[in-house]
Structures are given as structure tokens and as C-alpha cells.
Amino acid sequence: MNTRQPPLPPRLPFVDYAISYFSGHISRATSSDDRLVISLDEFFRTNSLTWIELVALQHDLSPLTETAKNLKVFMERRAKYLSPLGKEVQNVLEWADDLIRLVAQFGRALLSTPSAIHFLIPSVCPSGSIIFRNFARYPKPLKLAGISQLSWDDRLCCITCTQTRVLCVACDLNKFAIGLSNGMVQVYHGKTFQKVFSLAHGAQVRCLEFSRVKGLPSGFCEPPEALMAGTRDNKMIFWDARAPFGHIQSPIHAAFSAGLGLLGVVYRMRPITFWEIESCNFAGQYHKTGAIYHEPYVHAFLFNPVSEICLAAVAFHDGDIAVFDPCGNGEVVIKLFDFETLRLLYKINSHEENIHSIAFSADGIRFYDIRADHCNIWEPSVLIRRINSGDDSSIDQSDKIRDKPQFTTARPTDEGQEITTFATHPNGEFIFCGFEIGSVKAYYTYSGKHIQNVIEHPSGIAILLLRWNETATLLSSVDRTGCILIHRIFQNYSVTQPFLVQNKIFECVSPSPVQQLLD
């Protein structure tokens, strides 16, 4: 598909000014004139994509976020005197929200290919967003089947740093910085989430703080060798931080995994504790019962000797044997409380790795969490207060705190429903998808809807590879444990069950990771 546009004609200097700064004049315009709201609605319905492209061609997306803020200021002032009813008013408010989301989630794509706003981006936006409703059926767009997300969620952006780990985060008025295990400090724009510059610290960056004078970050590598405390009687006490810390009792089991960089330690009646070998930092725990103390006695514990298969096994005194992922630390929860009443306002459930650090933005309407190799930026509506001229909020305002706390998740799908691999059927009507929980399901390609559960791997471990052989009508699947299954499957042309799994003709477990399936 060719998305290239013909060269644009030369523009007058005033046009460049209008592209970047027109919204500033709107924020100061009279709010009693309905014609301005009607004109804004018509502009966004007809010329918004061209305007977004022209902004992106300037290699600076801040005019988009500034426009969203100015629209909020104008509409908030207008709502004090006029009823915020009417489709034009709601459309303008929705566009103010969508502009922030476009920059946060598609900023890199816009800067690299500005014309993508015409043919690609609207089709992958949530189906309830105003940009999708207005432009998803634009001439020659990308057609995407099976979109399940109806609206934007509270996570504005997720920044991933490959081949390294994010260790800390710090925020300033207009930017934020993350410290990485490879010794780099990356500084990002607080509105567009685009990287501004990088600093080479030279060692793992474990603490960041912005200077109150010039707004520059300062980094510290390893913790100091001494722990210092001041007492009420004006004395300073020092402890040697190099001395061993941990449980007083001796461990009953310990195992290393050099490939995963983990040390697993088992204490009597305690959860299994994991430490990072390189940094000696706490990495997480495995609980069988969920209790901190009085866990069942552990008979044996070990890592999978093949480090590419991130699994560990533990045998308990009661006869149970558990196999789990030591790199994933179960359910991780972020809870926000009202400072005065200590009432729960907001809760984020996640099945990703443990959170290493959390920081609030300077205005208090966003917060950042870091885990493993990425940083999440959240803007929940419960943090929003009445907008003012310095507020960069992108969510509708409310002065009232909801009676019941809000709940969300850091994943768009339920745990275990993450697709890990897929294979297409030759007729083009169906697609087989392998999941995290070891199941293989069939879907319609034209609608993305689920049709049938095809097979289940007995281990319940993620499917890594799928292969369809049309000649022999065989479906081959491999899970993360190395289990290989081959089933003979026929198409019986039923509406509800289009595939008939006749029998399993092959099963084996590979002693080493399987990299590829061939016919």
C-alpha cells in the first residue's frame, strides 16, 4: 500500500504560525459565541488529519498537546456560563482527549511518517474514539478486524528499553528521566513522551533526582558503603552496608540460574525468595498460600537447567509440586489513597514484574511506574482536579471524588489470554492462535471473533510455535516446556464448530528449546 503524498505547495509564513499557535487565541476568545464551537467541530471533522500531519512535519508534536490544553481551558470557561450540551461541544472535548492520546501512543510513528495519520493511525485507535468514528473509513485505510478496545485507558504511554532494565524514575515540571542498568539516563518530554537527550553515567543508575535550580537530573550508581542515621540526642550512627542482610536462620535450599541471573533461596516456613545475582537486589518471592509466614515446608527446589525456558519447580512437604515462572512475580497492585481520609481511590492490577519505583508528576495528575524493561505513564481521572491555565490534563474534569474506587489493569487482556503465536488456515477464513495458558483457539479473520477451542496442552504453559500442514491436515504445536503435539484436524463446515479434532498422532518432549517447525 503506497502512503506517500504528493509534495505540498509552499506556504505563507502566517500559515506556519497558525498551525502551531491558533489554539492559544481560542483559549482567550469569548466563550459566549456558539459560532466558534461550531467552527471548531467542523475543522476537526474535515481538516484535522491534514493539520496533524503539518504539525508532525515540523518535527515537534508539542502544538498538539498545547491545543488539547487550550481547548480544555476554553470549554471549561464556557461551561461556567452556558450548558455543556450539544454534539459540537462533546466532539470538541473528545478531540482534546484524543490529541493527547495520539501524541502519547503514536508520537514516534507521526514523527517518522507524518502521512500515517491519514491511512494507518485512525484504524488502530479504540473504536469508541472520535478519530476512529470519523476517519476509520477514510478512502484506502488500513482495515483491522477484531478490535476489542472501545475507549482509551488510563495508561497514556509505555516506554520500553530493550536489552536493559529500568531502575529508577524522576519527574520535573516539563520532563521526566529514567535510569537504566546499562549506565544511561534517558530524559523525555513530559507532554509528548519523546526522548529529548541521553546521558552516559557509566554505571547502573539506581537513584535520580531533578535539581530545583536548573532542572537537571543527578544520578547515583551503587548505594553507599555505609548506612547513616541521626538520633534525637544529636548523634550520628553508621552501619557497614556491606555486611550480610537477610533472615537470621540458615537457608534449607538454594539454587542459581546463571542464564536468568537469579538466586533462589528457601528458608523454613518462608516464601521462596529471589535475588538478582549481578546487582544483589531483591527480585521477588513465590508464595504458595499467600501468607508471609508459615508457608509449607519445602523438600526440594530447582531452576530449569535450560535458561531459555524460564521455569522453576518446588516440591512441598504436603506432596504438592508447583512449576512457576520465577521472572514473573504474580499479581502486582498499585493503590492510590486520599491523603486526608486514607480512602482507596484507584487500583491498578497487573501480572507483570514487580514495580521498582513510582514517581508523581509535578502537577500531581500523572504518575510513572517502572518494572523490568519499561516505564508506564498513567493519568487516572481520580487525580484530576479543576483545570487551570497551568494544567495539562487530558481527561474530563470533576470536582467530586467518586464514592467507589476505580479499578483497571496494566494489560488490555486478562491474564493467560495473551496471544503468543498464530498460524493461518489456507482458505483465508480462519486463524489459529496459541495462548499463554497453553490453549489453541480458532478465530474468523474477517471479524476477529472467537469460534472454537481447538486443543489444550496438558502443561498449561504458553504455546510458542504453531504450524498448519494443508496436505495432511495436521496442526503442530510446541509449548514453552518443549512439548510437541501434532493433531489431525478436519474442517466439517459447521457454523459453531468448523473444525473436528480427530486424533493426536504424535507427542514428545524435546530436551532442548524448539526454535522452528517445518513441514
UniProtKB/TrEMBL annotation:
InterPro entries, per the entry: WD40/YVTN_repeat-like_dom_sf, WD40_repeat_dom_sf, WD40_rpt
Transmembrane segments: none
Name recorded for this polypeptide: WD40 repeat-like protein
Organism: Massarina eburnea CBS 473.64
